[in-house]
Amino acid sequence: MADPKGFLTIRERELPGERPVAERIRDYREVHGLLPLSVVSDQASRCMDCGTPFCHMGCPLGNVIPDWNTHSWRGDWHSGIERLHATNNFPEFTGRLCPAPCESACVLGINQEPVTIRNIEQTTADTGWEEGRVTPQVPQRLTGRTVAVVGSGPAGLAAAQQLTRAGHTVAVFERDD
Among 102, 13, 98, which Cα is nearest to 50's? Predict the structure, then answer.
């Protein structure tokens, strides 16, 4: 459980600011800046770990958000990325692209600004990559079977990843170049 009084002590929702447009048009880096890990941990402490986690129900992937918020609050980014990978094959890009319906489902949003769930997810994934905690999960044995996956969207790639982990050889077919 995250800090039981975190939402009372840290009331302000803090998100990274956008980089100036004049700077952004010269590169392909992130539009938003980065927050220090300590600020992200503070934001994670705002999670109430309420009895009915509506954020979990609001997430299309079924991410167990209070669990990895707790790890982020404690600064245990290793456990946070493991928990995040338990329900999400690609948090490094879903944390950037998802419209975050979990935040609008956050119970804290009734009286305050909701927890910065999307930013916490993105920071957890980025920190996992930076620390070398995201590693290939090579199957112990191959089954000798090949499975075709049609479509290289998020669902197709997630299916391909899980099938590969199960030991199958996977061929992904995509009609677009």
Answer: 102
Distance of CA 139 to the CA centre of its chain: 24
**Phi and psi of 45, rounded to 5°?**
-65, -15
Separation CA 109–CA 55 (nearest Å): 10
Any bridge partners for residue 149, and if so which? 172
DSSP string, 126-173: HHHHHTT-------SS--S-EEEEE--SHHHHHHHHHHHHTT-EEEEE
d(C-alpha 11, C-alpha 34), whole Å: 20
Express each pLDDT in 115-140 by its tens digit: 999 999 999 999 999 999 888 889 99
> Across the strands, what pairs with 40?
none
Phi, psi of 76 (to 5 degrees): -95, 75
Q: Which residues contact 158 (CB under 8 A, 6 or more apart)?
A: 89, 90
pLDDT tens across 137-158, in order? 899 999 999 999 999 988 999 9
Query: How far is Cα 75 from Cα 167, in angstroms, rounded to an integer?
Result: 34
Task: State how far the Cα of 55 lies from the Cα of 116, in Å rounded to an integer.
Answer: 11
> Residue 111 pLDDT > 70, yes or no?
yes
Helix (H) or strand (E) holding 172: strand 169-173
Q: Cβ(115)–Cβ(2) under 8 Å?
A: no
Question: For residue 171, what are the β-bridge partners?
Answer: 148
Given a contact cutoff of 8 angstroms between Cβ atoms, the answer to whether 95 and 80 are in contact is no
